[in-house]
Amino acid sequence: xxxxxxxxxxxxxxxxxxxxxxxxxxxxxxxxxxxxxxxxxxxxxxxxxxxxxxxxxxxxxxxxxxxxxxxxxxxxxxxxxxxxxxxxxxxxxxxxxxxxxxxxxxxxxxxxxxxxxxxxxxxxxxxxxxxxxxxxxxxxxxxxxxxxxxxxxxxxxxxxxxxxxxxxxxxxxxxxxxxxxxxxxxxxxxxxxxxxxxxxxxxxxxxxxxxxxxxxxxxxxxxxxxxxxxxxxxxxxxxxxxxxxxxxxxxxxxxxx
Length: 257
Description:
The protein is α/β, with parallel strands linked by helices. It has helices spanning 42-49, 72-78, 95-103, 111-116, 119-139, 154-167, 184-199, 211-217, 235-239, 242-249, 251-256, and strands at 2-13, 16-27, 31-35, 57-62, 65-66, 80-82, 172-176, 203-207, 220-225, 228-233. The strands form two sheets. It has a six-stranded mixed sheet with strand order 6-7-8-3-9-10, sandwiched between helices. It has a four-stranded antiparallel sheet with strand order 2-1-4-5, covered by helices on one side. Helix 3 crosses helix 5 (119-139), helix 3 packs parallel to helix 6 (154-167) and helix 5 crosses helix 6 (154-167). Residues 4-251 form the ABC transporter domain. Keywords: ATP-binding, Nucleotide-binding, Transport.
């Protein structure tokens, strides 16, 4: 069963087609990756799926509902949650508070509850704090819970963003180049966490430039080049696909191989 179905998705900026007639199905429970060279249209694709950008043509179905024209907050509330290529933490908040903000997407309450703090609201706040610490433990940041999030090294900021996204209890977690800027050791740690997230039942769709990482952990991979999907298959199929090799290495290298 496909949790996400994308059909003929197209985005044009004037005469430029950033994405052109892209179709793919992301199976429930899978770890699916979208790769491609710089400028292939990967982030534009993510932006349309998550509601940050409207499409020119095509359709997006998530969990059985058409979300092609749905606003981003509605899509997130349905369980499609994303991280960003550039780390976007809440400044002036602690590490734990950043994760607690993510938890509130899945809680209830409003201004009146915040002001009068009934018993159910106080209980919910305790549960939010406990959930935040559990997620920080999951990504290896529990010891840093009370420090200012801006003081974390870059690699740990990446992990904090993942923990905050998990706090919203996603059905589908979109990771936009999560390994960007990480060293080899940090990338290995991230790969392990992504696999743990998926093993716990969360469907993962990631965009990544690190082909070695993707081919090691993904169940299935789609490849974009110049805004078009040129291949889709298992990691072994993708590594042997001539169009994929040409897109990354250049036609001349393929011909001389």
